[in-house]
Design brief:
The protein has about 180 residues and is mainly alpha-helical. Helix content is about 65%, strand content about 0%. A two-stranded antiparallel ribbon has the order 1-2. The longest helix has about 30 residues, at about 60-90.
């Protein structure tokens, strides 16, 4: 039998806002879109890095793709840091009442992994590209499937909360300050 944890038992419950702020919601979705863009449109960077590694001249179209990838990566890093600052200053809504301990652990682990990857991916990419540290390129590549898995678990969890558990978890990441009474 799984243990149930009440909202009042969580450490930040008394300080938790009812819902996410508009800035938290916008940053969430903007970072999500930029990360997905990076994952699915990285060919220019990949080809440019291969050319650079071989000592070849970088093809102009690959150079453009590499520049866009760099700009978007740095943007993701800056937005993620801003999001973390807002999160620490404002807090986040408490988990819905009656969640099992395992669900709470999975949700927390997924959040931590996503934040870690969203911060580390731009750093490892920059160290590989600007610092010439080839090992960082390997770490960067390993991060791609990891972030896809974390995004999938996060998305599946949000859908499960909305359609099966019937909580406001998904709604509150769309509508600022929204929270249904538990």
């Amino acid at each position: 039998m799984q243990a149930k944890i009440k909202n009042s038992e969580t450490p930040m419950a008394s300080k938790s806002p009812a819902g996410y702020s508009l800035s938290q919601i916008l940053l969430h979705w903007l970072i999500a879109l930029l990360v997905l863009y990076q994952i699915f449109f990285h060919e220019g960077m990949e080809h440019a890095y291969e050319e650079l590694s071989k000592g070849e001249a970088i093809n102009p179209s690959n150079a453009l793709g590499a520049s866009i990838h760099q700009f978007v990566g740095i943007t993701v890093l800056v937005l993620a840091i801003l999001r973390l600052i807002i999160r620490m200053a404002r807090g986040v809504p408490a988990a819905p009442a009656g969640q099992s301990a395992i669900k709470l652990r999975i949700a927390a682990a997924t959040q931590h992994i996503l934040y870690l990857l969203i911060v580390l991916m731009p750093i490892t990419g920059a160290l590989a590209w600007f610092g010439g540290i080839s090992f960082m390129a390997v770490i960067h590549q390993i991060g791609v499937p990891l972030i896809l898995i974390a995004v999938f678990v996060h998305f599946a969890g949000a859908l499960m909360q909305h359609f099966i558990a019937k909580t406001d978890v998904l709604v509150r990441m769309v509508k600022p300050g929204s929270s249904r009474a538990a």
